[in-house]
Recover the amino acids of this structure.
């Protein structure tokens, strides 16, 4: 059945009680254009009309109460601003005051003294007398076989709609009218029967019905559970289909062999034994790149887990198969560092790597562009400069994007366009992303994970210190420096003002200098505004050990590798996000010596910041930290996550409904593994549903 002849596609003005005027308001205020849109406006609470409290049984700490009684003493009292409408509601046990400050004359008109009313509202007390201000009030109709009276939905509304007579309860009149028209055929099932049975889920019609008009709380929860599962399940099916489709339809270059370059490096020049996790990922990449479709892989690994070497080996694989490869980094410093380390790793094999950044000199740049186009350059490292229009490759076969969150989807797409057949793409994250986020935001990508750190890493000790303890912190740095080690002192970037950040940093630099006077000590300083040549010199002096202390803003954050550095001091640590703190901490603990991370804060720190700091002090596992970050900040704000429609669930939450998401993913994968074309009778409901949602999934290519 198509949407066109489904009642749900009817324009909202055709619903009883709506009409053109209200329709306009519903469209403007709530984006409700069709019956279907109204169906998806979910109540945020239900009023349980079956529970009526006798007035003298009202508990003083009750929040909302519902009472039935006779209305008496209806009168307007007070003057001007104090003017109000009051009434007394009496049942057999006692009485309660009702008060209105607004809409007085209108409310007075619709109420009749002596009639019996059902009253609902928030309980308050005035002079020890219970009262309800601006109660919801309606003539009492003793319960009939009318569902609305049991568990009445209240919908989200807006001030403007309320003024037009559509408050949260009045909208229920509309959904009630809607349900008079909906039949089970209007809401066909979209989850395979066996899954419904296995997970004991309500069918789709029943679930929608019960989320609006449940018989009781239990039924409501069942409905909610089913609809949340559906959201996750459909999203997972879609993401998987995109992935499968890309595998089937995208043409990719084929790396059919592991050749001399890879083997020579692996056997003779690898400076350490790979971890099993690294080996696994390499295997996944090798298999994927040999299949003839384009690889689009997300590589997740904690700080220091050794992603770079995986990238390098993959690049050698590309070269073995005659293709060029590139590695793109988010900052010049990082590009420079990759350039240096790849060159030194490859030097024994007489291979050189090129570098292209925004500050490459015109003449050199011209030569590089020519060599790239002619295929003379096999390996190149760079920044965004690599994806500019005029950079042409001869045959780019493999592109590594380091530290994912600095690059957008558009930039990745720009890389694809660098060859007729798009290159394989390996995207490496700076810090881990929570599993549930990765599943939803990146579910269409192939996914690898390095969940193991190289052997022999020493744990980094992390502590929280405040301003009062600054002297001690400086003494500690001095001790470490005396032992021959190096230290970072990091200042936050102040978002509102580059100038302020700079002043903060420079003041910190002066202070640090007074603790560590020249010529006995020397200090490097680094910030974003510095000319690149000066940055390089300062960085280089720290890398070589000429300077013992590096004072820097977060430009140092990602990737920088100085194994002799053992102390990381983070100033105003309360201003940093969790993943940033973790990333910064990852700059130490890279060598054989014991390392320390000191989080310096003022004396007054918010509870949330304290929680971040506590998390840092108690764990060094990036995956755990990522989960905490998600919990504290919500999915929209976690670093490293692309803004994605896949995260817009109406009911489900990737933070609170993790188990359901795992289940949905598992089920979606199983369905598609067994029956990718959804031909089995059991999967037809799903296939029909997806077909209906045309435009959202390009299903035609598959079936
Ligand atoms: P990240 O994943 O954070 O980018 P890197 O690739 O920079 O980490 O690696 C961190 C450090 O660990 C580097 O000094 C690297 O040489 C080293 N390293 C990587 N893999 C291993 C390994 N298997 N054994 C020992 N050291 C390793
Ligand atoms: Mg790295």
């Amino acid at each position: 059945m198509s949407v066109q002849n489904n009642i749900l596609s009817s324009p909202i003005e055709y619903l009883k009680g709506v009409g053109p005027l209200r329709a306009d308001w519903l469209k403007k205020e709530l984006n409700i254009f069709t019956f279907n849109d109204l169906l998806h406006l979910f109540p945020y609470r239900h009023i349980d009309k079956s529970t009526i409290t006798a007035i003298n049984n009202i508990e003083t700490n009750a929040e909302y109460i519902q009472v039935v009684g006779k209305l008496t003493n209806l009168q307007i009292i007070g003057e001007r601003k104090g003017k109000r409408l009051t009434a007394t509601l009496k049942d057999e046990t006692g009485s309660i005051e009702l008060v209105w400050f607004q809409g007085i004359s209108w409310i007075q008109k619709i109420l009749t003294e002596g009639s019996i009313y059902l009253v609902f509202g928030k309980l308050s007390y005035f002079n020890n007398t219970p009262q309800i201000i601006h109660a919801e009030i309606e003539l009492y109709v003793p319960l009939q076989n009318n569902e609305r009276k049991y568990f009445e939905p209240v919908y989200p509304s807006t001030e403007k709609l309320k003024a037009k007579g559509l408050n949260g309860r009045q909208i229920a009149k509309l959904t009630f009218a809607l349900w008079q028209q909906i039949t089970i055929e209007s809401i066909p099932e979209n989850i395979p029967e066996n899954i419904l049975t296995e997970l004991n889920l309500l069918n789709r019609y029943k679930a929608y019905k019960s989320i609006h008009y449940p018989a009781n709380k239990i039924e409501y929860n069942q409905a909610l559970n089913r609809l949340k599962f559906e959201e996750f399940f459909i999203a997972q099916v879609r993401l998987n289909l995109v992935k499968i489709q890309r595998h089937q339809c995208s043409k990719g270059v084929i790396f059919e062999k592991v050749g001399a370059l890879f083997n020579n490096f692996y056997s003779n020049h690898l400076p350490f034994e790979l971890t099993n996790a690294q080996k696994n990922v390499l295997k996944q990449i090798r298999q994927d790149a040999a299949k003839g479709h384009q690889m689009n892989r997300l590589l997740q690994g904690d700080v220091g887990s050794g992603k770079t070497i995986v990238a390098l080996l993959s690049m050698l694989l590309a070269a073995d198969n005659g293709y060029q490869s590139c590695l793109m980094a988010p900052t010049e410093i990082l590009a420079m560092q990759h350039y240096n380390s790849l060159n030194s790793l490859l030097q024994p094999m007489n291979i050189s790597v090129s570098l292209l950044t925004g500050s490459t000199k015109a003449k050199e740049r011209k030569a590089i562009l020519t060599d790239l186009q002619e295929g003379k350059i096999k390996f190149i490292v760079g920044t965004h400069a690599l994806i500019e229009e005029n950079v042409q490759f001869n045959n780019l076969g493999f592109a590594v994007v380091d530290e994912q969150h600095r690059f957008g989807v558009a930039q990745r797409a720009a890389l694809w366009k660098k060859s007729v057949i798009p290159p394989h793409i390996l995207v490496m994250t700076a810090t881990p992303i929570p599993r549930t986020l990765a599943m939803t935001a990146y579910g269409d990508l192939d996914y690898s994970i390095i969940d193991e750190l190289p052997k022999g890493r020493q744990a980094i000790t992390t502590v929280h210190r405040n301003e009062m303890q600054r002297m001690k912190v400086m003494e500690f740095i001095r001790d470490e420096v005396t032992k021959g080690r190096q230290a970072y002192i990091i200042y936050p970037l102040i978002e509102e003002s580059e100038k302020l950040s700079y002043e903060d940093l420079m003041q910190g630099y002066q202070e640090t200098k007074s603790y560590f006077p020249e010529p006995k000590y020397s200090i490097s300083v680094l910030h974003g505004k510095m000319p690149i040549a000066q940055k390089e010199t300062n960085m280089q002096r720290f890398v070589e050990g000429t300077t013992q202390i590096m004072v820097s803003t977060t430009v140092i954050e990602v990737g920088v590798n100085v194994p002799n550095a053992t102390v990381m001091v983070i100033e105003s640590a309360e201003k940093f996000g969790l993943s940033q703190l973790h990333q910064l901490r990852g700059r130490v603990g890279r060598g054989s010596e014991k390392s320390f991370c000191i989080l310096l804060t003022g004396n007054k720190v918010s509870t949330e910041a304290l929680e971040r700091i506590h998390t840092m002090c108690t764990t060094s596992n990036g995956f755990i930290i990522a989960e905490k970050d998600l919990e504290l900040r919500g999915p929209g704000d976690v670093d490293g996550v692309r803004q994605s429609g896949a995260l817009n669930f109406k009911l489900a939450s990737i933070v609170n409904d993790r188990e359901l998401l795992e289940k949905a993913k598992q089920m979606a994968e199983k369905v598609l593994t067994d029956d990718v074309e959804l031909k089995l009778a059991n999967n037809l409901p799903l296939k029909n549903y997806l077909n209906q949602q045309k435009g959202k999934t390009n299903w035609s290519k598959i079936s």
